[in-house]
Every structure is written in C-alpha cells, then in structure tokens.
Amino acid sequence: MIEIRDCRENEVGLLGQIEERADAIFPDGLISEHLENYPLVYLERARIHGSLLVACNQHDIVGFAVAEMREDSYHLFLLAVLPEWGRQGIGSSLLDRVSEEAKRKGLASLSLTTFSHIEWNAPYYQKKGFEIIPSAETSAYLQGILKSEAQEGFVNRVAMQRLV
Fold first, then answer.
1. How confident is the model at residue 74 (pLDDT cuts 50, 70, 90)?
2. What is the CB neighbour count within 10 angstroms for residue 126?
3. What is the CATH number assigned to the segment(s) 3-163?
4. Dihedral sign, CA of 147, 28, 25, 121?
5. Deepest in the core among 68, 70, 129, 164, taking most CB within 10 A?
6. Structure pTM?
7. At 139, is the secondary structure helix, strand, or coil?
8. What angle do CA 52, 54, 56 make, to 5 degrees?
9. End-to-end alpha-carbon separation of the chain, Å?
10. What is the pLDDT of residues 1-27, one digit of tens each?
11. Cβ(37)–Cβ(16) below 8 Å
12. Contact 120, 92 (CB under 8 A)
C-alpha cells in the first residue's frame, strides 16, 4: 500500500537520491550531466508551503512531487518515482493529489514542462488530460521556464496544462 502525504522536515534530504535514480532511466545525454538536483532550499520552501508531497510504502519514500502556485496555475516542477516502483500508479497518485491541491487552492489549472518525445513524459501526461500549450499561447512564465531549460541543455520540451 502506497500513501501519498506531505513531506516531513527530516525527509527533505532524502529526495535527491530519488531524483537521481529516477533521472537515470532517461536516454544518455538527454539530461545534462552538469544539471544538479532540485535545490534543497526550494524543496524545503515547498515543504513549508505544503506543496511537497511524498509517496511512501511501509518503510521508505518511493517518489515525490513538487508544485507551487504560479500566476493563476499550480505548476508541477518535478515528479519523480524510483524506477523499481515505476508503472504501479504511483506517479498517477502523486499527480492526482497535486491536482486536488490546485483545486483546493482555487486555481484554474495545473501546468508543467516536459519532454515531448519520451513515452513517460508528454504522451503520459496527455493520457492524464494535459494538453500541449501552443507556443503562441504559452504564458510569459512558462516561456521563461522553457528558455531556462533550453539553456541547461534540455531539448524537445513543451509546456502542458490541464484544467482542475
């Protein structure tokens, strides 16, 4: 049984290892080797604001999600699940909980940026009700994220959104 809950203060430092292991399943060269984990200071800020969720089995954290309010949307910055726990609905459960939080906060939508050509990225999110935002309709905030990601070496990225 997997439980989705808010991250506890003493757990924030464990999330980097999960992120690294989750990133290891991407094709070689897709994620810049110089790219560091999501900064601990941001994870801690998200935890304090109640926007850092973890997925736990009986003993360990097996995945997590980070989302924050941006403009009129809740933006999913990161969703990571340990590879050995993949394809068991954990990512979907985290995503559903993030959507519930967005709705609870009175926000209109949930946004994210992701790889357009990786099966467990844009195609996965499309199955979950997200739509690719045409570049002409992409908000300045999301354009800024995509530009920053491109500067970090990420290619084939798209912004996506779904109503909550």
1. very high
2. 13
3. 3.40.630.30
4. positive
5. 164
6. 0.90
7. coil
8. 165
9. 26
10. 899 999 999 999 999 999 988 887 777
11. yes
12. no
CA distances from 150 to 22, 32, 79, 93, 140 (A): 20, 10, 19, 29, 15
Tokens at residue 122, please?
């844009």
Say which residue the tokens 């994870």 belong to. 43
Angle at 79 between CA 78 and CA 84, to 5 degrees: 140
Residue 34: pLDDT band with limits 50, 70, 90:
very low
Percentage of residues of the chain with pLDDT beyond 70? 93
Domain boundaries, the chain: 3-163
pLDDT digits (tens, 9 = 90+) for 117-148: 888 899 999 999 999 999 889 999 999 999 99
CA distance 104 to 102: 5
CA distances from 161 to 70, 96, 108 (A): 13, 14, 10
Distance CA 6, CA 54 (A): 6
Task: Of 120, 30, 22, 115, give the one whose Cα is nearest residue 64.
Answer: 22
